[in-house]
Amino acid sequence: MNNELRQEIAHWLSQAGINSQPTDSMPTFVLLVACAFLATLAYLIVRRGVIRALNIIIKHSKASWDDSFLRFRVLEKLALLVPALVMNLLVPIVLTAHSLLSVLIDRTLSVLIVILFIRAAFAALDAANEIADVRLISRRLPIKSFVQLIKLFMFFVGVIIAISIFANQSPVYFLSGLGVATGLVMLVFRDTILGFVAGIQLAANRMVSRGDWIQMDKYGASGTIEEISLTTVKVRNFDNTLTMIPAYALVQDAFKNWRGMSESGGRRICRFVNIDVSSIHFLNEEELARLEKVNLLKDYLAKMRTELNEYNTGLIDNDELINGRHMTNIGTLRIYLLEYLKHHERIHKNMTLLVRQLQPGPDGLPLEIYAFTNDTRWDVYEAIQADIFDHCYAILPEFGLRAFQVPSGEDMRQIRLAQDLTQP
Which of 165, 207, 224, 405 is found 20 to 30 A from 423 (Cα to Cα)? Predict the structure, then answer.
């Protein structure tokens, strides 16, 4: 059939005034042009017909995940395979009389098909990665790491297949030679291999996920994980700088993940107020009468008055404060703050709630508030904490207490001025 077609073309060329024989190169050239035309026609039919129809169906579908295939033009890249396959099918038939040229073009087209297929597969993998991001699957698994690993594997396989096609050897022949180069591969792709292994460990143990707030002082990172790739973890710090951490470093080195705090629904307040020890004293009747008007202390003071009166009754010389039990301003303040936190609408009631004294030191007696807010957002948390301690500092005079503060230059100036005024 090929010979008959060549004779028809040669006859047609002779009628057109071109002297040509069936075995000449001119009929071959015409056949190649015809093959190219058929390949182009097949591409236009698939691209303008089938692919366009599929894109319309995808755009009007209710599902949103398939839109990623449109953005990454997966179908359009697959359509490029059609002309290459048509040419690869027809060219060997056309070039039966030119074996060397037929082999060269056939191998070139075969390599082109491999390249186009890998290109389309890369686009499909990128679309799958985007779908995983949209569906928040990547928050649980390092999908991008697996996508990059598959791409790397496909790239090497494609290179080996391409070389085997040009060398007319089985791909197994070249794969067997990789064993010799294993040491070199381990050296060149050390970070990639370590990153992949680390990615599996991170995913299996759920150590980190996209969106987690991590803190890793060694690398100056304190912020939210934006991306987990095959070799690095991208962290956007709270000052909007970016830190790239090697994936294997998260397995080898220590870091802090605040995800547990976010998932628990409570964020800890652990701060203290230094009380001037010289301002601590027993409460007298006048102070008790004033504090009994405080709603949060009414029940406590009534209960303590009854308990202390029963204890102190019958004691010898109970007029002396040292001989009995009496309420102190620091103890009453501690109870007040505890009740204040229990009634605070922004404090988590199902988590630890303490107001305690710490070890006194040169800066006074630390009175610590240990509680959890019911909102873990940073700005809200800071506002709640500031509001609580604003109130705490403001009520100290009501209990006859003072916050300890190291004397400033102004304090020393006032002392010096007072001394000058008292001197004759």
Answer: 405
